Amino acid sequence: MMEQYLLRVPKKVGTELRKKIQDKDIKGVDMVAGADNKHFKFHLGDQEYPVTLNQLPCILETHKTYDDNLFYKSGEIGQIFMVHENTEKQKLYEDVAELPSGITPPTTNIVKRKYSKTKKYPTFPKTDVARVEDSLIRIMGGGVIEDVQEELVDYCDWMVTDAEPQGIVVYDEMDLIVQHPEYLTISKKKDPNEKDGNSAGSVLAERRQAIEDARTPADVLSEEDDDMDDDGKSKPATAASTPTNSGNKSAEDDDFDEDMERMLNEDMDDDDDDDKYNLQEDPQYVAFVRQRQVLQKKLHDLETEILTNQASISSATNFVLKQRFQVKDQTLQQQKAQLQDSLNETNQSIRDLEAKANV
C-alpha cells in the first residue's frame, strides 16, 4: 500500500493545476522538500509557492473503483500539504503541529469539541504500560497470571536510587540478578532446624537428662518401694552391693549406653546426608535455569519475527518499504546473535554446576 497525502492549494493555483491535468501536461509541476522535511516548495510553471506539512486530526481512507459499484480501500491519509500564496500565510501554520479541523463538515473544530475531553486524563507511565503489555502477551500466549510473592531481604545501598527514592521496582528478576549478583545471597535464610555440631558426650548427656526429666512421681515411688523390705525397712546395703546385682546394673547401663550411641550415630549419618550438595537447592543453579528459559523464549519469538520480516521483504513491491524491511532484518539478526551467545554462556554455566554436583 503506497503512502498517500492530501494537497491543498489556493483557488488560483487549483484552477491552473486542473487545467494542466486535463491537458495531460504536468511539466513544470514539482514539489521540493527542505532540509527539515517539514517545509517544502511547490513549483507550478515559473511560480514558486511555500508549502507546510501539517497533521490531520482524523485518519482518512481512500477507495478506488472501476465500475462505480464496487469500492476497495487503497490507502490511509494522515497528513496534508498546504500550499500558501506567500510567506506571511505560511508563518501562520509553522507552529501548528495538528490542524484543529478535518476536511469534512462533521470534523469541523473536532479537536476542541471531542478530543479535548480526553486530555483531562493523565498519561500513563511507559513502564506501567510495558508491564501490562507483557502480562497480556503472556496470557494470550497461554500463560497464567503470576502470583505476587512478598519477601523481606536485607537492605543494600543499590535498592534506592535518585530516580526512585522510595525503593526500586523490579519487573524482571533475571535482570536484577545480572546487575546485582549479591541478591542471591541476601535473601538466603538460615535453616531453623540447623544446629551446631555437638560432641557425642554432650548429646548423650542431654538425652539422659531428658529421660530423667520425663520420669513421673509414680516411677520414683515405685523405685523406693523396691528398695524397702516387707517390714517397711530399708534393705541391707550388702544386698545392693552383691556381685550379681552390681553386675546386672552395670550390664543395664552398658546396654543403655550402646543404644544411645547407636541412635546418635544414626542421627549423625542423617546429618551427613543433609550436608550433601543438592543442586536443585543451589540459588545460582536455579537462577541460571530461569535465565535459560527466558532466553529460549526470547530467541523463539525473535526467530518468528525474523521469518515474518523475511516474508515481508519477499512480498514488498515498494523499493523504500523493502529497504526498511532489510534494515530491520539486519537488526534482528544482530539481536539473535547476541541472544544466542548469552544462551550458550548460560548453558555452559549450567553444565559446570551439574558437573560439580556429580563429583
The description of the largest β-sheet is: 5 strands, mixed
Separation, N- and C-terminal Cα atoms? 63 Å
Total strand segments: 5
What's the average pLDDT? 76
**Secondary-structure element string:** EHEEEEHHHHHHHHHHH
Backbone CA Rg: 43 Å
Strand content: 5-15%
Output the structural class.
alpha+beta
Share in helix:
40-55%
Strand order of the largest sheet: 1-5-4-3-2
Which blocks of ≥5 consecutive residues have pLDDT under 50? Answer: 189-200, 237-247
Shape: elongated
Count of helices? 12
Describe this structure in words.
There is one protein chain. With 359 residues, the protein is of the alpha+beta class. Among the domains are: 6-117, no CATH class; 151-186, no CATH class; 279-358. It is 50% helix and 13% strand. It has helices at 11-22, 87-91, 110-113, 126-140, 173-179, 183-186, 200-213, 217-227, 237-240, 243-274, 283-315, 319-358; strands at residues 6-8, 29-33, 39-44, 47-65, 71-83. A five-stranded mixed sheet has the order 1-5-4-3-2. α7 (200-213) crosses α10 and α11 (283-315) packs antiparallel against α12 (319-358). The chain starts with 5 loop residues before the first strand and ends with a helix. Residues 189-200 and 237-247 have low confidence and may be disordered.
Concise synopsis of the structure shown:
With about 350 residues, the protein is α+β, with helices and mostly antiparallel strands. The protein contains 12 helices and 5 strands.
Topology of helices and strands:
Blueprint: E1 6-8, H1 11-22, E2 29-33, E3 39-44, E4 47-65, E5 71-83, H2 87-91, H3 110-113, H4 126-140, H5 173-179, H6 183-186, H7 200-213, H8 217-227, H9 237-240, H10 243-274, H11 283-315, H12 319-358
Parallel strand pairs: 1-5
Antiparallel strand pairs: 2-3, 3-4, 4-5
Helix pairs in contact: 7-10, 11-12
